[in-house]
Amino acid sequence: MTAGAELPPLEIPVTRTLIVAGAIASRDYQDVHHDAELARQKGSPDVFMNILTTNGLVGRYIADHFGPTAVLRKVAIRLGAPNYPGDTMVLTGRIEEVDGDTATVRVTGSNGIGRHVTGTVTVTVPVGGGAR
Fold it and tell me: How many angstroms separate the CA atoms of 100 and 19, rounded?
C-alpha cells in the first residue's frame, strides 16, 4: 500500500435486476427502486439505485482490490447523479493515506450522466494480506 497509488477501475453494468435486487436485499421497499411507473409519477425517468446498494458496491470494490483479509473500518459516501438501468458505473480509487496496515482510499463512481458517488473508505490489511 502506497499513498498516491491508483486502484484499477471497476465497471459495473447498472441493470434493472441489480437495482431491484439491491433494494430488496437491503429491505428498502421504496417504490422508486422497483416500480418504474411509480418512479415516473414521482418525477424520475425510471427506477434508480439506492444508497445501500451503492455502499455495498463501494465495499466490494475495495475488498476485491485489497484481498480477502481486508477489513473495512469505515465507509463514508455521498450520492450525486442517479444510477439508472442501462448505464454503467465506473468505480475508481486512489490511496490517500497509509498508516501502518491501514489505508484511506478516496473512491468515486461515475456514470453516463455524472458522478454517482464520492467518498472515502478506511481499510486495514493485516501483514501478509497485501493489495493485489
Answer: 37
